[in-house]
Write a structure and sequence with these properties.
Elements: H1 6-16, H2 23-29, H3 36-40, H4 44-48, H5 55-64, H6 68-84, E1 87-91, H7 99-102, E2 110-115, E3 124-128, H8 135-150, E4 154-157, H9 163-173, E5 178-181, H10 195-203, E6 205-209, H11 221-231, E7 235-238, H12 246-256, E8 260-263, H13 274-281, E9 286-287, H14 291-297, H15 306-311, H16 319-327, E10 333-334, H17 335-342, H18 346-359, E11 362-365, E12 369-372
Parallel strand pairs: 3-4, 3-7, 4-5, 5-6, 7-8, 8-9
Antiparallel strand pairs: 1-2, 2-6, 10-12, 11-12
Helix pairs in contact: 1-6, 8-9, 11-12, 16-17, 16-18, 17-18
Amino acid sequence: MAHKNIEDLFYLFILLGTDGIGPQKIFSFLTQFPDFKSIVNANLKQLTRTEGISTTLAERILASRNNYNSIREKVLSTLEKIERMKGELITYWDNQYPDLLKRIFHPPLIIYTLGEFKPADEESIAIVGTRLPSPYGRLEAEKFASGLAGKKMTVVSGMARGIDSVAHDSTLRSGGRTIAVIGSGLDVIYPPENRKLFERIRENGVIVSEFDFGTKPDAQNFPKRNRIISGLSLGTLVVETRFTGGAMQTAAYALDQNREIFAIPGNINVAQSEGPNSLIQRGEAKLVTCVDDILQELRLDRKPDLKKELNIKKVDISFFEQKVYDVLSLEPKQIDDIAAAASLSISECLVNLLTMEFKGVVKQLPGKMFIRD
């Protein structure tokens, strides 16, 4: 059944507001009725003959008709709000609904979005982790987010403090696309200090929520959010988290959804390393040290752009610039590693990198990391 008009929404909201009816029930009903309206307007005999509908549930559906006017007003108000924000209300049956998300066991039937999904978002990787990362965790989140952006992969996260925010910010600073799945209504920005980040993501990616306007970021919302983070992604990268962290929950959802899990190994004496190290130890996650480890596991071919590689021949660079350039690739490298590989001091490397950045052949990423541009 395709979502065709606004009246469909009224009846869908009526059903979702009926105690005892969730997404799986609705999918089942739609194999026996042509649309939502037919379900709500069926008589008691028709309903009780339907698989999955008891007499008690049938009576609740009949009683729900009394809510039509109030539900209609609520839906119209919601649509007006989202239109003012230049967002969208997308149902499972709409063409804009992400295909990856459709494939999970319990997909949200309604999502609210700011920004626009693009075909490239079907190749997304989630980056998740603790709200209190170590300097190592921040650096690795920056490196992987920037590297994925450089490979034209979309980065998905939850816009929380810590690793999530680092992942979104690093992706955007590297010119990539990112999707933020939030645990509140689109009009409730949490944490509040991420207001600017929220707007940047909206302009260069998508903000996604399954919660209605005005919904506060209550604790019970985040598990539901986490299943969407993994559901929108081919795989989930766990950077740093404790055993009890929300990132471990996202990894568990990824496992249930038959998606890949990747983990960055950490110092065994640091609490933030508990989660990723245990995932690796149990064989639930692949240990990764660079972006190519992820792409190879997913069998995604990301060959360098030959036209870009050839541009260096048209630019006049010095002997030492060439020496530094030869060390670089489309995988981000930290300044210390570049200097060691080029057999130059860090200060010499930085001078040459800055000059090449002006010439448009090198790009600097967060955390003093560099790639060929």
